[in-house]
Amino acid sequence: MTGVQTCALPILPAGFVRLSDVAPGVAQDIRYAGSDNFTGRPVDGYGAGACWLREDAARALARAEAAAQATGFRLIVWDCYRPQRATEAFLRWARDASDQAMKARYYPAIDKSRLFAEQYIGKNSTHSAGVSVDLGMQRADGAPLDFGTIFDFFDPRDR
């Protein structure tokens, strides 16, 4: 077979599902798979920009999406399952004082070495268990709702 490429989908952990299979109406913008995040680069462990969750969490999100759609809105997720190696990558990034590329956009009023101590980022996360999402809402046409700051903005205004 010349010119045809096949790409096997990653194998999901036991008990996990792809959110797109359970709740296809939920928009996905998995920020850590790309460079539009507080590190300024793709994060280790995010090979694809797709949401994986425990099946019960995905089904609960599907119910929330149905309720949102009934009122003219839709949900968007920015993070779902997070491999532990991603959290470890966040720790390494926080320890690198020379990397300040995203400070003005994501953490202008705090030293990045304080992000874990101030609990903006957790050393252990329920994201790693596949039961947490970073969630927002959009209008039905995809226009985002204004929540006051951008996703992952680390500042007291965000609390």
Helix-strand pattern, N to C?
EHEEHEHHE
Class based on secondary structure composition and strand pairing? alpha+beta
Low-pLDDT residue intervals, each spanning 5 or more residues: 1-8
What kind of assembly state do the chains in view correspond to?
A: single chain
* Biggest sheet details: 3 strands, mixed
What is the radius of gyration? 17 Å
Count up the helices: 4
Shape field: globular
Strand order of the largest sheet: 2-4-5
Condensed summary:
The protein is of the alpha+beta class and 159 residues long. Helix content is 23%, strand content 13%.
Question: How would you characterize this protein structure?
Answer:
It contains four helices and five strands; from the N terminus they run βαββαβααβ. The chain has helices at 19-22, 55-70, 84-95, 103-106, and strands at residues 16-18, 27-28, 52-54, 73-79, 134-139. The strands form two sheets. It has a three-stranded mixed β-sheet with strand order 2-4-5, covered by helices on one side. Strands 1-3 form a two-stranded antiparallel sheet.
